[in-house]
User: Fold these one by one.
Assistant:
Number 1:
Amino acid sequence: MASLSCFRTLALGACNMFHKGSRPLVLCGPSGSGKSTLLKKLFEEFPDTFGYSVSHTTRSPRPGEEDGKHYHFTTKDKMQKQIEQDEFLETATFSGNMYGTSKRAVEEVQKAGKICVLDVEVQGVKQIKQSSLDPLYIFIKAPSIEELEKRLRARKTETEDALQRRLSIARLEIEYELF
Ligand SMILES: Nc1ncnc2c1ncn2[C@@H]1O[C@H](COP(=O)(O)OP(=O)(O)OP(=O)(O)O)[C@@H](O)[C@H]1O
């Protein structure tokens, strides 16, 4: 995959050039652009260099998902309180569930001596830009909306409704260059 070597070079190069301490990387791009695919390969290839921050969510765990590993599973009340206490870098609501990245989740990766990588939606990017995190941003560009649709259909993870929702958000993100 050509884009993987570009991404690898960019991620490592950016960290070598700018990195003092452990400056996080924020990865963003439309649904289907390949963020998870690239991250999976990056973590496989450099397990000691990069670490993923564990997000919070108020949705129920799916079979096989472990608390603290895949997500920090929490309640709306608890998460709301933590947001009020300024413990989150970014939060979003999707399909009635809250999601977010806590400051502590990033610090835990940094304490382990790794560069923290965050995979966030456009709303999250806007919030992170207002925070003190000061990360490096990597935008994964989509080849075309048609290609995104083809990839998301082939991934077979979405219902038709969810797929259409993702595509209309992607279309707006691309048209208005929201990133
Ligand atoms: N460069 C590529 N060329 C072709 N197919 C790809 C490429 N990158 C990823 N894919 C495929 O496209 C689908 C979407 O990729 P992926 O899940 O990584 O996207 P994503 O950006 O993380 O999406 P989301 O934001 O919805 O989680 C996957 O089935 C993946 O195998």
Note: The first helix runs from residue 2 to 18.
Number 2:
Amino acid sequence: MAPQRRGAPKVPEGSGAAERRRQSSTKKDRVQQEALRRRLKTAVLGACAALGVLLVWSHMGGDDGVTEALAHRSEVLLGRFIEVPCSEDYDSHRRFEGCTPRKCGRGVSDMVITGEEAARVRSIAEKGLSLGGSDGGASILDLHSGALSVGKHFVNLYRYFGDKIQTVFSEEDFQLYRDVRQKVQLAIAEAFGISASSLHLTKPTFFSRINSTQAQTAHDEYWHAHVDKVTYGSFDYTSLLYLSNYLEDFGGGRFVFMEEGANKTVEPRAGRVSFFTSGSENLHRVEKVLWGTRYAITIAFTCNPDHGIADPAFTVKKGSLGALPGPGSLQPSGSVPGAPLPPEYSLDRPAHTPGALGLGPGQPGDVASTPAPGAALAKGDQQPLLQPSLDHAWSRLPAREECGCRSAVRASPSIIPPGFVQDTATQQGAQPGFEAGRASSSLSTALQGVSHLQLALHLDHSAQVPLASENILMPDQNATPIVLLPIIAVMSLHHDLCLVLSWTGS
Ligand SMILES: O=C(O)CCC(=O)C(=O)O
Ligand SMILES: [Fe+2]
């Protein structure tokens, strides 16, 4: 029997029209109920599916794999250390026994730096980064070289602001920076059972400020998985001092050690120090920051004293800060902190090595101390060119705009060792994509005595890769410089390559 709707009009028995109406209304009811049942079923199934996704998502940490917290934000860690087998990455570099990692791993501690110290260090970062800032989501400030993100570029804040930088930073700021570096160095040495004095601070060591603004250039793409030893070369031990709190100051932005099985996350916490050996045993990435602002410092150490850098010093010397290049001659008169930066100081650098903050080896420091060849140099920066023969070769290089690439290489045979382009391209084992590799080659002995060398690769007219000064080893002033060239292999194979050099003497 068909269910009778409550309150349905009574119809006389035997009435054909009434019977048809009754049947039709019963049918309608059935259709409606069926639709309702279907909707309910869909809703229940949808809710179950959403719940399932949520469960899986939370288990995976909303990430690209199963994730476990190595350091949870609410924990206060005395010290947690996990040993992992060392990769072979260190074998291709000079070993320094007692320092180069034999014991590899990662550690986290909330006891190395006090909350008060972290807050003061953060205010240094805030002050410095407020002078500039990337148009995209990731800005850096390197107090060693002065590199500061501005718009889509980096500038040298010491050159730009000159003495006025003393109104921004104080001697106490620099002292604190040194103390913090020292404490982190001691913690790393203790965890890995090495002597702290065998560790040398290396570049780039820099502040980072990350927010959720969309990336504008490759420098803003901090989230790519990378190996610090590959990205930065000189790193043996990497450390991070976090200056803000996950889920309080920002969302997303966890540090992830990438592993088969389960990724391990470090949830940033102000004052938390995370450190690890820099080889591929510690492949890692930073999750995209979803909201808020994340501050941190990357502090890196090398075992190779030749790759060591000094702490930044606040001593005023010839109108500039101590140990910094140039006498501040790029400082525009009347500039004040926060003033817009003139375009000539904005040196574009296509990133050629994927990595944290899109920075290749030594990039922040390099930009600051080694302007790209062809970039406008202020008067005080120009030093007399040495070596007439090289001078001559230089003059024969086509102008940057009309660089004929291979023809430019041919135009300077005394500079480019025979087969150089070929060698570097083939040695890299070209792979598709932006594969940065290194090949070493001696420049002509004509470069002996040269104290400062700037190089850039021009690829197919469109891309320019200024080379980091770190890639140019000058053992001493009288030795032939050894040039370690990062080559974008696939480009060097498929596009014309043009090497442009400029140099200055001591
Ligand atoms: O900020 C972080 O947590 C990591 C940064 C990083 O991986 C790097 O600087 O190499
Ligand atoms: Fe890194």
Note: Residues 226, 228, 238, 284, 356 surround fe (ii) ion (ligand 2) (CB under 6 Å).
Number 3:
Amino acid sequence: MSTTTKNRGETVTPATPGVDTAGVMALLDRGRTLATPVLRAAVDRLAPPMNTVAAYHFGWIDAEGNPAEGDGGKAVRPALALLSAEAAGAAPEAGVPGAVAVELVHNFSLLHDDLMDGDEQRRHRDTVWKVHGPAQAILVGDALFALANEILLEIGTADAGRATRRLTAATRKLIDGQAQDISYEHRERVTVEECLEMEGNKTGALLACAASIGAVLGGADDRTADTLERYGYHLGLAFQAVDDLLGIWGDPEATGKRTWSDLRQRKKSLPVVAALDAGGPDSERLAQILAADAHKPEEEFADFSEEEFAVRAALIEQAGGRDWTSQEARRQHATAMEALGSVDMPAEIRARFVALADFVVVRER
Ligand SMILES: CC(C)=CCC/C(C)=C/CC/C(C)=C/COP(=O)(O)OP(=O)(O)O
């Protein structure tokens, strides 16, 4: 499915058979509509120039400081948080502080991740470190994390305390996952199990938190919240598997990133690890090339031509890494569906969780 965001709240998305595309777009829009005013008010609390830098990151202003309607992200996590409040029988509004807190943590991680990876493009524009410098990317990322906790603690209820504990636990896992991801870049071999564990931490934990935090704020018991977390965790693994596919074969027009973005970083993402694990001539050839790449100086690697990355991508595909990763996304989707099946909720809310999960697997951005 090709989804192009023209600007915030205005998406052009052709239908994909079997996916309730219109329903998902409405859910994402609802998440944005309810969360954005609270998010903007939170960002307004930051001291200058961090408030401006954060506003640039979210797409509310351009690099010159003029008002803009840039791509602020798909807002999958806020949509999940609001749905999870509804799963607990509360109004979606009960999930708003959770939606905002999770989105703040997500964006903190993107700011730092872009800096660590040296990525120059995100959401169709230059990254914060590129425009405002590394110090601002670090400071604003830190500030967004602090704001996330503030937003939850300000609610002042026991449920808010429970929600904050879940968010900080998820954040620690996200940081563990990032540390694992970076350490794997310098290793010749990583097992599929190690890669899945890393991705579960890096991406699964925060989606798990998004899928349960609204329910916690809506007064759900821990058992219900834990089951929704399980749904979110496997959804997160499906999400990351698709992200890994897009990181190699994604269309830059849709993803807002450069071609071959994960290959440029020598990421041991799932398609790479699965291809190396497959055995056979393509797998062995790939292993030789990647082993040589691992020892190349940064400058030499950065100067690679498109063709050189295309050769690596073709070997990954021929060795079966692309197909395996697509299937893994579907397996994780199925496990998420199993977890969802064990939570009592109105059929209409369940259908929305299902639609969101379907969207995650077919998304192209
Ligand atoms: C501590 C630290 C630096 C951690 C980094 C963790 C990290 C960057 C994980 C990747 C998560 C991910 C799939 C992001 C894209 O989300 P998305 O497609 O929902 O992005 P969007 O909001 O732009 O749509």
Note: Residues 9 and 29 are 6 Å apart (CA to CA).
Number 4:
Amino acid sequence: MISVHEAHGIISASVPISKTKRISLSEAAGKVLSAEVVATVDIPNFSQSSMDGYALRYEDKDINLSVIGEMAAGTSCQLVIRPGQATRIFTGAPLPEGADTVVMQEKVKCSGNTLSIQDEQFTSGMNVRAKGSEIKQGETAMVPDTLLTPAAIGFLAGIGCHEVEVYYPPDVTIILTGNELQQPGNPLRFGQVYEANSFQLKAVLHQVGISNIRVRTAEDDPKKLQEVLSAALAESDLVLLNGGVSVGDYDFVVQAAEACGITKKIHKIRQKPGKPLFFGIMGDKMVFGLPGNPSSSLTCFYEYVLPALEQWMRHDSHLKKIKATVTHDYSKPSGLTHFLKAFYQDGKVTPLHAQESFRLHSFARANAFIVLPEESTGCSAGDWVKVHVLPG
Ligand SMILES: Nc1nc2c(c(=O)[nH]1)N[C@H]1C(S)=C(S)[C@@H](COP(=O)(O)OP(=O)(O)OC[C@H]3O[C@@H](n4cnc5c(N)ncnc54)[C@H](O)[C@@H]3O)O[C@H]1N2
Ligand code: MOO
């Protein structure tokens, strides 16, 4: 058995080089840019009014002006003003040729077509967005490794970009093992349990921007599991097996992985829950054998699969790693790192009841793990402990 720290090192060293793909901007939210974006046009593309008012030559500010027409947003008709002239103008509209300044309509006196300016703070170029003031053609709009947040997507759309190259999420296959599994919605027969792991794994994968997910099932039979695993390896970059990773007579994951040519890198980590975690690689494919207990499966996802995905997709950590004051005592034997389901708020963290790995009741309320290291024998109320805050 290896430590949590050693396991992270092995997994991190095994994550393949990220794949990149050119995709539509509308699919790119939450992904990370892999290639620079260069502006292809000046934005704004013309001198643009930022107010509803009148466009004029600044040097004419002290004389009465004659209003010769109107510039509205979206107009394709360009007016020209001469000395002593102005046009009506609206927010977002191009300035008429010859104008350099816009006065707000609240700051003028207008009688018929004659206009005088009543603005003590009036300055040259006021209320005008200069051509190229957001970005100029040929300038770098965004550098690689930028996270495509909603604002980043809006910015890129606003400069006319409709496709981007991003680090592309892996295709994932979840394999469920276990003859006892029954789909929610059906009555339970004797000995059956409701299948929960694929539901929570799909939910968390979606949450981190992965949508290409297949779910396969395999009976507790080594040959059948090997067939399903081979099919999963052929179709996916990442395989998440569930269950069958321990030492029981019906636990065939390690055997099937070896038979498929997967190189075993990890089997068993000094931790609770999730001690029997398996990790292996085949070429540039990663395979995790998540322990079947639902709480163990999800804990191993957050602590091991998620960092591997983040490295692959060049994404910052979704787990916020902080320290907080624990509100209650918790005791444990030394020897294993414990990930306790916990509730974190305002610098304080509370370990929840029901830490057993077959239960999800407290996990469903948790928003964090308390991480108690191998050597520790627990914590006392008031101690400063390591906390991993889960993505909300
Ligand atoms: N003699 C030993 N027995 C066990 C050990 C050990 O060290 N020695 N380790 C225990 C630990 S820790 C864990 S964790 C489990 C892991 O077992 P497996 O990965 O082999 O998982 P299964 O036996 O297939 O299932 C465990 C448990 O989880 C339920 N399960 C499985 N898949 C699902 C699913 N998709 N949805 C809901 N529940 C699921 C399954 O019915 C079992 O109850 O091994 C211990 N045993
Ligand atoms: O480590 Mo197992 O995951 O506790 O039940």
Note: Residues 272-275, 291, 293, 296, 357 surround molybdate ion (ligand 2) (CB under 6 Å).
